[in-house]
Amino acid sequence: MSIESIISEFAGIAASPAKQLANYKAEGKKVIGVLPYYAPEELVYAAGMVPFGMWGTNDKGISLSKEYCATFYCTIAQLDLEMLLDGTMDQLDGVITPTICDTLRPMSQNIRVAMAKLKKMPTIFLAHPQNRKPAYGLKFCVDQYTNVKKALEEISGAPITDDALKNAIKVYNASRAARRDFVKLANEHCDVVTPTKRSAVLKASWFMLKDAYTEKLVALNEELKKLPDCDWKGTKVVTSGIICDNPALLKIFEDNNVAIAADDIAHESRAFRVDVPECDDPMMALAMQFANQDYDVLLYDEHSSENRRAEHVVDLVKESGAQGLIVFMQQFCDPEEMEYPYLKKALDAAQIPHIKLGIDQQMHDFGQAATAIQAFADVLSMQK
């Protein structure tokens, strides 16, 4: 298959998750919704079910969820609940609700109450440890994952064996490796993999079984490797934030010849940065993967005074060959907003230009963003 045809398939899936959900149900599969993020999807896969990412939507208003949500919840969380309430996700067989931030903690209870009240689907609560690296943190994480495992076994009607979980870990590690390869190739061939196409390829991973997704992505990677070197005349940036998957916003990048060299986006590279160790105890291996996650504003860092996360982002800009950074600041995301001054300090010290754009999934007018991106592209082009 050609590069365009493979990317087109990914784009179709990314644009129509409800259709993809219906397809899996038509095949007789059970599907589990997974809210953001760091949930152990491997457990769902090992249970013979389909993990289905839920990261809000750019195509829906907020109405029903207002009964349960505070107005200062981010739109990702509000729209996830909206889709659970309005019937969009009624075909799910259950939903996992991690509590990784101050919005998702109460939201998990809102979803539990709403689903019970409407007699819809079971809700699987997941609490990650703040102190994830010490032995007691690992034990707590294993205990929480064991609760998730038991709940999934009740839904699937069959036990999750160690062998099945070890296989799931191999499948997911292969998928993470393929996505890491893809983002590097997308940088090398940014004339072919535009910001919109790059986003679609990565977004599709949340709505596909990982073995099928990886097979298709590896095929795309192999085709990209055959391309001649790209002589990119435009500018390159690194993106940072929780999510930026709106095609209308990403089209502005393309209109101004701005390519994405790499990202520090939760919806994208943060999700596949760290593999699960392949060892004899697969449950502990999943906990170790979470313990090994670093450089994320939502995770406790005992060395935070060293500003390690900001230095990681600075290194990402330098190593990717980008000229600057664009921060997509999700409205009402307190961790990202509180961390920004430290990020700015590191960027300024490294003399890396950047801009901060406030976004949410209810935005439809990107006039101000277009002006800011155009001006930023002009500044970067003069510095090349």
Characterization of this structure:
The protein is an alpha/beta fold and 384 residues long. It has a domain at 22-163: Rossmann fold (3-Layer(aba) Sandwich). It is built from 14 helices and 8 strands. It has helices at residues 3-15, 17-26, 41-46, 75-85, 104-117, 135-156, 162-188, 195-204, 210-225, 247-255, 282-291, 308-320, 334-349, 367-383, and strands spanning 31-34, 50-53, 94-98, 123-126, 235-241, 258-265, 324-330, 354-359. The strands form 2 sheets. The protein has a 4-stranded parallel beta sheet, with helices on both faces. Strand 7 (324-330), helix 13 and strand 8 (354-359) form a beta-alpha-beta unit. Helix 1 (3-15) packs across helix 8 (195-204), helix 7 runs parallel beside helix 9 (210-225) and helix 12 (308-320) crosses helix 13. The longest helix is centred in the middle third of the chain and has 27 residues, at 162-188. The protein starts with a helix and ends with a helix. The model has no long low-confidence stretch (mean pLDDT 94).
